């Protein structure tokens, strides 16, 4: 039982705490340029900015205005709205921007985000394709920074760094978790490359997008294609996408559930990335960031059950009495956060355990749903 407890405990902490240490121990193979180099308009790559939208009429005007105002030579970019068979005024709004160079590509039937993106990919003429959700605001200098990053021939894709904001633009919500994820991405990018991009804003060379899988998340499939082609997917702190945090816990739970279910589906469609004989460094990072993280809720349950069994023995070892007390304190904070929204908003030591357990509950839910045959390709954007 002691072995069961310690294996489960290590499994519970590996992906979040030990994996970053493993990355730090590996040699650095890529570093981002210190600053964007100045380029003449004729030397920057041509960009196709693909905005994926489904019933996004309320946000699309703001998104298009933001996109058209970005600092990039107008003659070196095109803007495409990929409508996933929207049935509101999304298509009409996109057509209203035709005189400013915006092109509408409409899916004849609703088949999901990746299918709509694929239709736009086939229409795109750019050397680099930039994918962005309609709810994401791109920082003004991000496209110039992308151009500087793609000047490195080894870079196949670039992921933005996410920033959650309130309606007034103040940082909020998953701040700690997102900061952790962005730091982890930087470590991955400097080693074997990212194993997943930010689905709300990323860019890739056109050649990377040729092998498109409409049934797998495009952010994961793009990173996978980079590895296949001997390129790397990277992130950069100067490429920023901002979007509003989801304040409703139920919608946030559903978003995480959908993300994990789609992620498991994508990985199971391409299990070859787990084979270290193909690319040992990339396989290590995929194993650590994906399956090991999806196994955390089950490791937590096993560790708790084993700990209960150990303290129930006639002779209680002080070590296991301590680990039991720490677990009881941790889950007590989670329970307090569940019954008191005010407590989790006010106190850091309640908010973090609560959010961690909420995320892992969504992972467990998605894992069981996948095992039961549930799949998800039709896209339902989160309401923000």
Annotation keywords:
14 helices, single chain, 8 strands, Spore Coat Polysaccharide Biosynthesis Protein SpsA, Chain A, globular, 50% helix
How many helices?
14
Domain count, please report it.
2
User: What summary fits the major beta sheet?
Assistant: 8 strands, mixed
Strand content: 5-15%
Could you name the CATH homologous superfamily of the largest domain? Answer: Spore Coat Polysaccharide Biosynthesis Protein SpsA, Chain A
Q: Portion of residues in helices?
A: 40-55%
CATH architecture of the largest domain: Alpha-Beta Complex
Contiguous uncertain segments of 5+ residues = none
Output the CATH topology of the largest domain: Spore Coat Polysaccharide Biosynthesis Protein SpsA, Chain A
Q: Find the count of extended strands (DSSP E, 2+ residues).
A: 8
CATH class of the largest domain: Alpha Beta
Radius of gyration equals 22 Å
Structural class: alpha/beta
Average pLDDT for all residues: 90
């Amino acid at each position: 039982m002691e072995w069961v407890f310690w294996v489960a405990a290590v499994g519970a902490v590996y992906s979040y705490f030990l994996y970053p240490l493993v990355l730090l121990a590996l040699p650095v193979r890529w570093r981002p340029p210190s600053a964007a180099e100045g380029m003449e308009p004729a030397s920057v790559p041509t960009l196709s900015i693909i905005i994926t939208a489904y019933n996004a009429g309320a946000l699309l005007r703001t998104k298009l205005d933001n996109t058209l105002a970005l600092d990039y030579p107008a003659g070196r970019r095109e803007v495409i709205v990929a409508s996933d068979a929207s049935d509101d005024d999304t298509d009409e709004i996109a057509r209203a921007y035709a005189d400013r160079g915006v092109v509408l590509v409409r899916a004849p039937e609703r088949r999901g985000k990746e299918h709509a993106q694929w239709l736009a990919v086939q229409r795109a003429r750019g050397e680099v394709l930039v994918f962005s959700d309609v709810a994401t605001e791109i920082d003004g200098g991000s496209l110039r920074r992308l151009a500087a990053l793609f000047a490195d021939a080894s870079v196949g894709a670039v992921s933005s760094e996410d920033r959650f904001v309130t309606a007034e633009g103040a940082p909020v919500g998953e701040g700690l978790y997102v900061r952790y994820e962005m730091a982890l991405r930087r470590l991955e990018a400097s080693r074997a490359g990212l194993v997943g991009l930010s689905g709300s804003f990323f860019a890739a060379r056109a050649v990377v997008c040729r092998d498109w899988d409409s049934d797998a998340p495009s952010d994961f499939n793009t990173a996978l294609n980079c590895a296949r082609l001997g390129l790397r997917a990277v992130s950069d702190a100067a490429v920023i996408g901002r979007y509003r945090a989801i304040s409703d816990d139920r919608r946030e739970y559903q978003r995480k559930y959908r993300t994990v279910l789609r992620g498991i589906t994508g990985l199971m469609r391409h299990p070859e990335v787990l084979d270290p004989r193909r690319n040992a460094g990339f396989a290590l990072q995929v194993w650590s960031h994906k399956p090991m993280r999806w196994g955390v809720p089950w490791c937590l349950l096993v560790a708790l059950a084993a700990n209960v069994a150990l303290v129930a023995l006639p002779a209680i070892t002080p070590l296991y009495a301590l680990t039991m007390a720490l677990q009881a304190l941790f889950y007590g904070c989670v329970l307090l956060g569940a019954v008191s929204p005010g407590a989790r908003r006010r106190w850091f030591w309640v908010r973090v355990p609560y959010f961690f357990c909420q995320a892992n509950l969504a992972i467990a839910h998605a894992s069981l749903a996948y095992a039961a045959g549930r799949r998800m390709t039709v896209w339902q954007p989160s309401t923000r």
